[in-house]
From TrEMBL:
<feature type="domain" description="GST N-terminal">
    <location>
        <begin position="13"/>
        <end position="104"/>
    </location>
</feature>
<dbReference type="Pfam" id="PF13409">
    <property type="entry name" value="GST_N_2"/>
</dbReference>
<dbReference type="InterPro" id="IPR004045">
    <property type="entry name" value="Glutathione_S-Trfase_N"/>
</dbReference>
<dbReference type="InterPro" id="IPR036249">
    <property type="entry name" value="Thioredoxin-like_sf"/>
</dbReference>
<dbReference type="InterPro" id="IPR054416">
    <property type="entry name" value="GST_UstS-like_C"/>
</dbReference>
<protein>
    <recommendedName>
        <fullName>GST N-terminal domain-containing protein</fullName>
    </recommendedName>
</protein>
<dbReference type="InterPro" id="IPR036282">
    <property type="entry name" value="Glutathione-S-Trfase_C_sf"/>
</dbReference>
<dbReference type="Pfam" id="PF22041">
    <property type="entry name" value="GST_C_7"/>
</dbReference>
Length: 269
């Protein structure tokens, strides 16, 4: 299949419907699309409808639940120019780079050292796939931020039209009896926040290697910055304001600078 130098038809991104676009994995894809300057539109899918929509598009689950069953989530990208459907955020970024290599702001995957390891027990370096270092980094960053996802639950910006159904879906997934089960005691929250800041310090060491700009490579943004930026977007929308300001300011303001630096690619279309 020949790669078009420029798409003639707009691509379509399927994203999770909230009152503020902040789902981490779709956000990574949105940043990559805006970086590549590719025209696209968004279809917003309520969380309870994701499984139905994904199955209707004949897209298999790209993750698994703890019991081994398929976990249906977003994003999905459809490119009518190549009749392609991609259902994973990392695969979407690779697709954009390979299909539109010279489009937009340049290379999503330039060589760089991405040696952040959070989950040492399950870490196994991938050498069998293209951009394996970025794949490993994505997996480790996801494990790191997912470990603190509980901090975001109480204030998730749920869309009013589907808030109750979405809450029921989260409660079911977590094996709880009610939404109140996500509430954390203040001392528990402080302990987890302190641990989060410790993790951010380790991740921040990578950003401290080049101080010429807010990104891992200084002034050059890459998909690795989008990986972290997707999770920062979630925190900016769902942490209490004082906790988000603490994240922004921690470790010399590295993550506030990164979040602000990515605003150039943050347009919601």
């Amino acid at each position: 299949m020949a790669s078009p130098s420029k798409p003639s038809e707009a691509l379509v991104l399927y994203d999770i419907h909230t009152s503020a676009a902040c789902a981490p994995n779709p956000w990574k894809s949105r940043l990559a699309l805006n970086f590549k300057g590719v025209a696209y539109s968004t279809i917003w899918v309520p969380l309870p409808d994701i499984t139905k929509v994904r199955r209707a598009l004949d897209m298999p689950p790209c993750h698994k639940n703890a019991d081994g069953t398929g976990y249906y989530t977003l994003p999905i990208l459809i490119d009518p120019n190549t009749n392609s459907k991609i259902g994973d955020s990392f695969d979407i970024a690779v697709y954009l780079q390979k299909t539109y290599p010279d489009h937009g702001a340049g290379d999503l995957f330039p060589p760089q050292k991405l040696d952040f390891i959070f989950d040492r027990w399950s870490f196994s370096k991938r050498k069998d796939i293209e951009y394996g270092d970025y794949f490993d980094f994505d997996a480790q960053v996801e494990a790191a931020f997912t470990a603190y996802f509980a901090l975001t639950m109480e204030n998730l910006p749920l869309h009013p039209a589907t808030a109750e159904a979405t809450k029921a879906e989260y409660v079911s997934r977590a094996g709880l009896t009610s939404w109140d089960g996500f509430k954390m005691r203040q001392e528990e929250r402080k302990k987890m926040s302190k641990s989060l800041h410790g993790m951010l310090g380790e991740l921040g060491n990578l950003f401290s290697r080049n101080t010429s700009g807010p990104f891992l490579l200084g002034r050059q943004v890459t998909y690795a910055d989008f990986i972290v930026g997707g999770w920062l977007r979630l925190m900016s929308a769902s942490l209490p304001e004082n906790e988000w300001e603490e994240v922004r300011a921690c470790h010399g303001g590295i993550f506030g600078q990164l979040h602000d630096g990515l605003e150039k690619y943050a347009e919601v279309k």
